[in-house]
Amino acid sequence: MISPVNQEAVMLASVMQEARDSTVQLRRLAPSQKQKQLHPSRLVKAGQSLFYEGDRAQFVYEVKSGVLRLMRLLEDGRRQVIAFAFPGDVVGFPQVGCHTTECDVIASGEVVAYRCDVLFHPDRDPELSTFLMKSALEEIGFLQDHFLTLGRKSATEKTASFLLVLLDRIGTRTAGLATIRLPMNRADIADFLGLTPETVSRAFSHFRALRLIALSDANTVTILDTDGLQAMAEGGSRALQRA
Amino acid sequence: MISPVNQEAVMLASVMQEARDSTVQLRRLAPSQKQKQLHPSRLVKAGQSLFYEGDRAQFVYEVKSGVLRLMRLLEDGRRQVIAFAFPGDVVGFPQVGCHTTECDVIASGEVVAYRCDVLFHPDRDPELSTFLMKSALEEIGFLQDHFLTLGRKSATEKTASFLLVLLDRIGTRTAGLATIRLPMNRADIADFLGLTPETVSRAFSHFRALRLIALSDANTVTILDTDGLQAMAEGGSRALQRA
DNA sequence: CGCGCTTTTGAGATAACTCAATACAGGTGG
DNA sequence: CCACCTGTATTGAGTTATCTCAAAAGCGCG
Questions:
Q1: Mean pLDDT across B56-68
Q2: pLDDT value of residue A150
Q3: pLDDT tens-digit profile of A151-166?
Q4: B169 in Cβ contact with B87 (< 8 Å)
Q5: Which of B170-194 are b and which e, b meaning 16 or more Cβ less than 10 Å from the residue's Cβ?
Q6: How many CB pairs under 8 A join A and B?
Q7: Are B114 and B132 in contact (CB under 8 A)?
Q8: If you ran DSSP here, which 8-state letter would residue A211 be given?
């Protein structure tokens, strides 16, 4: 998921603030598609922030490699992770010119920045415009999916759903078994699912006890029974969950 | 919110299925803007459905008057209301050609239908394309707002937040007091907030006891203390909530 | 080897749920 | 015009899933 080259290339001095200055860490890439020739690629390092809630929106970012975390905060410190962004995702769609979420890098990688004004001038680059519209529609669909999870599912259902989505997005198949390397910690997962880290941990333990998953370490999940996990995610047999 | 004329004009025989047939209930309107001349307006009646989950997406709809409800269902009947759409909102953004939510009319009114293919051909009508992009961005912002509510707020905070959003969208000011006519019932509110109808009702009663609101009838809310309700919505003083 | 951070496990507290009864409102028909 | 009837909303009492607080375990790092 993260190319080692990128990690090397990032200077150790880089701190959060740097990422907000668009002139830092810019680099030309071999253009992958015609309409992207003009849009610079940027290396980003875990721990950086691409933007904060309330920032004037300058760019939307397409993730090339690495993982981003979008979140919103409540005054008293409560946190909601809106989304994790993986390669192919576009983040930073603005609201009346401002970002309404904070965007942090949780796994170093590379992003492509598009000036926000391309969103409102489709005639200048119809191809790019269509790409961004599709990305926005994807984002809407993704958020809607997660609504159901957030509003109507139990802790085990939420956690199982989460693992299945990640399996789909970043799962790898080794020796016939699907495994997921989690780039985020339990607190991030909890804040994504509207739970506490303890409850997430208990759900993992529960799945392990049922032999649906195995954990080689806390962040490496092997899926032993996809169907069983699917049943969990949809409350297929709600009795099963307590078993 | 709902013009009486529209209610009259709709035939009593109209049932859900009719709304899905785009040839039914079409009518030319005086074009409000140049780019909308070609897009037909359609009268819709409370109880109809504009589309269902899984339907091939043909149109996105701009609400002119009335209120729509977007929702998703789980096999076992659990329901999540994704959004209520008021005049000015655009609903029905498709996912790979299909609708991923069900859309029902909860208050009769009028919508404008735009063919989905305009989303992917911005050069044909840049002005419309920009309008739809802005609508999509609004939708994303709106969904993100609601994420925080859904994932991290208590029942009273959720309910207070809900009332404040509605105040902003459809509140009216009479005799110096802001009032809201709720077009949806308690079950809809509950399914929007991830609660039960009983809990929503208790929250209303709680606010009434604190003299933050008054209810002339179950669907007519008068806001007596906006600041107090705001404090409730943000858990400003969490002690206050239990008072 | 010991320190700090994350995760896991445990035990008790609580917010919201479930089920059930009552109250209310709007529409219908006598 | 009023009584009834149906669906929605409210209120009550007991249950439970999840949270909170606390302790133990695991893991990486200097």
A1: 98
A2: 98
A3: 999 999 999 999 999 9
A4: no
A5: bbeeeeeebbbebbbebebbbbbbb
A6: 141
A7: yes
A8: T
Chain B residues close to A241, C-beta within 8 Å = none
Q: Where are the beta strands (DSSP E) in chain A?
A: 26-27, 41-44, 49-51, 59-73, 79-85, 90-91, 102-115, 172-174, 177-181, 213-217, 220-223
The three-state secondary structure class of B224 is coil
Higher pLDDT, B242 or B48: B48
- Asked whether the beta carbons of residue B122 and residue A120 sit closer than 8 angstroms, the reply is no
Residue A34 DSSP one-character state:
G
Per-residue pLDDT tens over the stretch A54-83: 999 999 999 999 999 999 999 899 999 999
Contacts of A191 in chain B (CB under 8 A): 151-152
Per DSSP, A93 falls in state -
- Nucleotides of chain D in contact with protein CB (under 7 A) are 8-13, 17-22, 27-28
pTM over 0.70: yes
- As a whole number, mean pLDDT of residues B41-60 equals 96
**Element spanning B67, H or E:** strand B59-73
Are the C-beta atoms of A66 and A110 separated by less than 8 Å?
A: yes
Amino acid letter for position B51 = F
């998953």: which residue's tokens? A213
Burial class, B11, CB count within 10 angstroms (exposed 0-12 / middle 13-18 / buried 19+): exposed
Amino acid found at B229: L
* pLDDT grade for A240, boundaries at 50, 70 and 90: low
How far apart are the C-alpha atoms of A146 and A151, rounded to whole Å?
Answer: 8
Question: Model confidence over B5-43: pLDDT tens digits?
Answer: 333 333 323 333 333 333 333 333 334 454 456 789 999
DSSP codes, A47-91: T-EEE-TTPBP-EEEEEEEEEEEEEEE-TTS-EEEEEEE-TT-EE
CB A62, CB A90: distance < 8 Å: yes
